[in-house]
Amino acid sequence: xxxxxxxxxxxxxxxxxxxxxxxxxxxxxxxxxxxxxxxxxxxxxxxxxxxxxxxxxxxxxxxxxxxxxxxxxxxxxxxxxxxxxxxxxxxxxxxxxxxxxxxxxxxxxxxxxxxxxxxxxxxxxxxxxxxxxxxxxxxxxxxxxxxxxxxxxxxxxxxxxxxxxxxxxxxxxxxxxxxxxxxxxxxxxxxxxxxxxxxxxxxxxxxxxxxxxxxxxxxxxxxxxxxxxxxxxxxxxxxxxxxxxxxxxxxxxxxxxxxxxxxx
Length: 264
Prior knowledge:
Layout: E1 4-8, H1 19-25, E2 30-33, H2 50-61, E3 67-72, H3 74-85, E4 90-96, H4 103-115, H5 118-121, H6 124-127, E5 133-134, H7 137-145, H8 155-164, E6 166-168, E7 173-175, H9 179-187, E8 204-209, H10 217-225, E9 229-234, H11 240-243, H12 245-262
Parallel strand pairs: 1-2, 1-3, 3-4, 4-8, 8-9
Antiparallel strand pairs: 5-7, 6-7
Helix pairs in contact: 1-12, 2-3, 7-8
């Protein structure tokens, strides 16, 4: 049976930011990923992330068989929606601090879009006007190290973000992940789902950081109510895969091995 794992990243963080996490999973698992979601002109960002899910499904269809889908934040939701649309492409889904949205969540998001306060409900508002140009890597490192979101990053993960999250510009460096695309992704967060999560045909684990304000108690209750759902708590906040990459890799290896042993 395949030990292929497809990783989907958080919004704004290209996949190579997670190199230390990948190193903790290889060679036990073959890691597949897109460099960055939402940047392929064939799959432009649209409302409810239908094209982003389609982009992921297209990548999965190029592989030889079903995979373990592991995603952080945005990536976990994309895997959930893809697995609801195409369950035959998956062996199971692991959502790393990604909420499985309830009906109340989705109604709230729909209202926020309609009445113009979606930027207050998602990180889009904080991303507006975000600095995206730097003179050199050291300036970028000092800048990001002082930001709350990055403050607890594993040093190697911060280095990888600087190394792989910035590209040469006309003068100095710029963010590789287009800021406008990042904001569009936040503003189009789904208020619709391909199917009811309770109909998910594969195992699902929701792993949340103990200090996260993204995955809330009602999200974990929903995960536990799924036929093959479970919920796990780990140290850290929303960015725990980049704060504790080795611990996260150990947890994933143990979880997936248990699922493999339980498979019929």
